Amino acid sequence: MHDQVIDPTEPTASCPACGRAHAADELRVPLPSAASVGTLGEARTAIDGLDAALATLLERRAEIAAVVQRLKPVGGHAGRDPGRERQIVEAMAARAPSLGADRLARIMTAVIEAGLDAAADAAEAPR
Ligand SMILES: O=C(O)C(=O)C[C@]1(C(=O)O)C=C[C@@H](O)C=C1
Question: Looking at the Swiss-Prot or TrEMBL record, what is one Pfam family this protein matches (predicted)?
Fold first, then answer.
C-alpha cells in the first residue's frame, strides 16, 4: 500500500491497491456500493478493502495528530479542544449522513484518544 512520499510527482508503475498508476502519496480506493455485493463473501471482501484503506488513513492521521501535539502550547490529553473536535465531527457528518453526528462523535472520540495515546507513547520511547 502507499506509505512514505518519495516524489509526489512521480507516478507509481502500478499501485498494488488499485492496479493503476498514480502518485505515491495518494490513496485510491475502490468504493464498492452496497448494491454491488450479493454474497457474504463479496461483502466481506468489500469490507476488507475498505478497512485496509481506513487503517492506512488512521495511521497517517495519527502521525499528523502527533505533529499537532508538538506544535500546540499544551499538547496531549491536557490540550484537548472540544470545539475543534465538534468541528471535525460536523464536517464528517455531512459526508456520512447515515452515521450522523452522534455516532460519528463516538467514533472520532476513540480515534482522537487513540492518536493522543500513540503520540504520548512515541514521545516517551527511547530514540
Ligand atoms: O487540532 C488539535 O488541536 C489537535 O490536537 C488534534 C486533535 C485531532 O486528533 O484531530 C486532537 C485533540 C484535540 O482535542 C483536537 C483535535
Answer: CM_2
Ligand 1 pocket check for 80: Cβ under 6 Å? yes
Which residue from 84, 88, 113 has its CB within 8 A of the most atoms of ligand 1, so it is best to mutate?
84
Q: Which residue has the cell 492521521?
A: 61
What residues pair up with 11 in beta bridges, in sequence order? 23
110 SS3 class: helix
Of all protein residues, whose CA lies closest to atom 4 belonging to ligand 1? Answer: 68
Asked whether residue 74 is assigned to any structural domain, the reply reads yes
80-119 confidence digits (pLDDT tens): 999 999 999 999 999 999 999 999 999 999 999 999 999 9
ipTM of the modeled complex:
0.99
Whether residue 83 is contained in a domain is answered as yes
In a domain, 9, yes or no: no
